[in-house]
Amino acid sequence: MKKFILGLVVLATINGIAADIKLWQNSTLNKIVQRGELQVCMEPGYVPFEMTDKKGNIIGYDVDMARQMSKDMGVKLKLVPTAWDGIIAALITEKCDIIMSGMTITQQRNMTVNFSDPYIVVGQTVMMRKDLEGKIKSAADLDKPEYTIVTKLGVTGEIATKKFFKKAKIVTFETEVDAAAEVLNGKAEAMVYDQPYNAIFMSDKGKDKLIHLDTPLTYEPLGFAVRKGDPDFINWLNNFLRQMKEDKVIGFSDELYQKWLVDTNWLNRVQ
């Protein structure tokens, strides 16, 4: 009997090891190592996280993160520019290994993809026309039929706009640049979008022209998206983020925060 039980234990152990080996062989992390290249989907239009400079290079907060990630993996980096409305589909169909594109972790998205731990937290804020200063004291004052609020299509800014503005007219645009231009040109009263983008915009094109209502309407943690059923990759990513935070590379007021969200010298490279 003892030999029989021992045999069952050995068999179970062997089966468990075989299952672990198969899981590793099928993991994205193993495929990256075998390929020698990390493929990252991102939409290069979300300032300051990913954008195209004058020379056609993609630069930004997330790009620096991707470079460090590929270096730590010991592989090359390939950025895969992808339209936002198809970026999750591109990941699922293995056009890339990971989405690093300022993506907010939401319960709806989490039904389709898995997320790493957050690497930064942002929220939706409002930029409005300067001539409304004094008349509008908070975002809630903009919720009137005579006001037009703009945002980008298909992002959490659109969700927040529809949630907080029930009476105002809401207009969506394909890009945040087009939405912001609508406010600058006086065709809309305000724009709802991510706090980092709005802060950078206010230090440049919006300076002395718009007012930033910088109290966030929402809590939005940003994370890396990966395909379902890949615990090895998630484990690696979370350990990577933990190390980056302890090394003071990411986090509030740390290296990348200062480089991309405080210092605006990089603006000269993209204008």
Automatic annotation (TrEMBL):
One of its GO terms (cellular component) is membrane. Residues 37-263 form the Ionotropic glutamate receptor C-terminal domain. Keywords: Signal. Residues 37-263 form the Solute-binding protein family 3/N-terminal domain. GO terms for molecular function: ligand-gated monoatomic ion channel activity. Pfam families: SBP_bac_3 (PF00497). It comes from the Bacteria. SUPFAM superfamilies: Periplasmic binding protein-like II. The keyword Membrane does not apply. This is Amino acid ABC transporter, periplasmic amino acid-binding protein. It comes from Arcobacter defluvii.
